[in-house]
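Reviewer comment 2.1 asked that we show a complete input and output for one of the modelled complexes. We chose the uracil case, as it is the one discussed in the main text.
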Amino acid sequence: MQAYDLILKKRRGEALNAEEINFLINGYTQGLIADYQMAAFCMAVYFQGMTPRETTDLALAMANSGMKYDLSAISGVVIDKHSTGGVGDTTTLIVAPLVASCGVPVAKMSGRSLGHTGGTIDKLESIPGFRCELAQDEFVNQVNRIKVGIISQSAVIAPADKLLYALRDVTATVDSFPLIASSIMSKKIAAGADGFVLDVKTGSGAFMKEREQAVNLAKAMVAIGKEAGKPTVALVTDMEQPLGYMIGNALEVKEAIQTLAGDGAWDLTELSLRIGAEMLVLAGHSATAEEAYEVLLEKLKTKAGLIKMQELISNQGGDPRVIDDPSLLPQAAYQTVIRSTHCGYIKSIDALKIGRLVMQLGAGRQTKDSVIDLSVGIELKQKVGSYVEQNQPLAVIHSSRPLSTEYEAALDCFAFSQAPPRPQPLIWQKITDADV
Ligand code: URA
Ligand code: CA
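Response of the prediction step:
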């Protein structure tokens, strides 16, 4: 087999088989196929696309290129949840304990923040003592014991994806649906769950700005799950404004605690319940998402999810007192109230700008090796659709130094209108295996 022939085949729009895709991925990972050939292949995929079978074979080849987690010793069906990345997206910290409190195992591998989007691992590390690096057997034992564990995604997972992503990044081939879908799913499959609930974000703060693109990506990923025999459901959800009120690591842990106590923002609570409901259905716990939703709502009311969160924290070495006293989390030295210059309805709160501002405050990474400040962030005082008077607080900036340009930058995230803006759905669409 020759790389040249496979590039030509794809350039002509023909489908490659599993053997051919494995040849390319294995050859590339071992350094036997050159960057220029792989780059040409990615460009051919960009223009010609891939069938669901090819996309799945690509995801499986990349998943098989490194270590794969074996979660078979966990009793019950393990469903993973994945978000394509948002601003203020604290749902994992709410959904994981909530679903676990129903007796369904949640063995979650999460990432760190990069760019303007946050990462669950950084958030958890703002809890004093919390350890995200557990060995596989320690992780499996914990999930069997308390039904929940959240660990940092191993660096040795899907190395082929890491190589390919770096190549795509410099050859204008990142934004290809089969390449993005296989990239995300390769890491999910290697992490070992039996099925997946995907939260595909759309809007200004999302990777996919247009809804149609998000739906296409969701379909491509659900198709991979279906072909790979791992039941997958995707929700296409709004990321036009940040989720909930808090954006920043320790702030989002505080928000997750408030939400599990039944006192969370409407959007964050609703999204967590809807994602959790899909997980309960895929795990075989509930017959319908509506039924599962009611079960989870009850767990919020009884604070069963909050108690499970506390159990998770103490089992992973964290200080469980943060549940009752969030002031034990890192606190920023400065708190500056941003006041409205307008009187009217809030028409939009730009999630991308907020995400960038929070990164600039020190909460996110510019590069993979940046050191981050867990205490800083933004606390919104309003959401889209609220009516505000002039001078009314819009947000509070939590910073470690006095502000320079950030006050103006924060104000610039808000847009106003005299008439109430038309409410937008939080969840645009659900994609199941019947749709692909
Ligand atoms: N996120 C990924 O993990 N891979 C992509 O290709 C794009 C976004
Ligand atoms: Ca939030």
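The pocket of calcium ion (ligand 2) is lined by residues 88, 90, 243-244, 246-247, 252, 255, 268 (CB under 6 Å). We note this here for comparison with the apo prediction described in Section 3.2.
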